[in-house]
Amino acid sequence: MRGMLTDKAVRAAVADILHLLPDEVRDTDNLFDHGLDSIRLLSLLERWRDAGAEVSFMELAEQPTIEYWLTLLTVFAPTGGESGHGRVTAG
Question: What domain count does the chain have?
Fold first, then answer.
């Protein structure tokens, strides 16, 4: 469903792009310390914008943690019960 980014989906995307398992990255870890670079960040940004996220490169780069990104990206998932607070629009 377009515009639905759950906590699980964000964590999975980050782990995938870093070639890690989702449980290998803590929510408060600085993702640049795990090998995230600007190219990978742009790739994530494109993926999330395609899903309906309204977020900028600078917003993600200024606090590169899953914890912060979840506040920007996630929305309430009606079937999964995961909550979010971000600015994702359903399309």
Answer: 1
